[in-house]
Amino acid sequence: MRSDLDHLPEKQQEELARVRTLLLDEFEAAKKQGSGGTSEWRRNGQVLKIILFGSYARSDWVDEPQNGYLSDFDLLIVVSHPKLTDIADYWYVAEDKILRDPTIGRTVNIIVHTLTEVNQGIERGEYFWTDIARDGVTLYELPGHPLASPRPISPEAGLAMARAYRDDWLPKVESALDLAAYAATKGELKDAAFLLHQAVERAYICFLLVSTLYFPRSHNIKFLRSLAEDVDPELAVAWPRDDRDARRRFELLKRAYVEARYSDQFTVSGDDISAIRTAAGELLQIVRRVTRDRVQL
Question: Could you tell me if 184 and 277 are in contact, meaning their C-beta atoms sit under 8 angstroms apart?
Fold first, then answer.
């Protein structure tokens, strides 16, 4: 795995250096304040690696701010203990500071796993992990913690897993859409918004599992969308980035996961619910088609 960033413009290199510093500094601060007391795993907890993956690692990123599209930075953080993967305890502050830092000009997505989890995925030949092992760029690492050697999964096994994921997740997407439609007919627009969030989240999860055999432990549909569209840009048709209303409604849907359930200040109109239902339905049709093509290979 390479460690140079010579393929990136200087601005992006500087942004990644700032991101790396914030992640490492805030992790050390979180260890002193987080749960776990004086446990050895917490006291001696370490970040073993920070790896850039996705479009900025492969050199096929998009940088079109005039069209509302900037590729995200996608980072894998490898830690020394499973409890250190807890976003709320160890990574929330770092994520928040990165989001608010004026010197970082694009969205930064992180996934956090132990070295054991990563290496098991690589050894099983799961596409997501083997792609990182092949294309990733190391931004930080401690010596003595190598990644495993990939063992490519057989086409038959990969196909069987993809089919099982598709059969499991597509009905969940359809169910959430049906429930959202019912809630809307009853005038329960906040419930409809939450259920539409669930439909869209499940659609991206279905696509990622079929395509990569992995999805991150996240309810952030903006992150899931970024990962999914990185694999297949066709999914962007459902939420065109050059459409201001589509961008606004997607952000509204993202907020609905928490706010539609818990905030008295969250409001959504019937017109927005109708438009979001249409976009979610289109996303389902795209996911249904592209996953069908993948499992029939």
Answer: yes
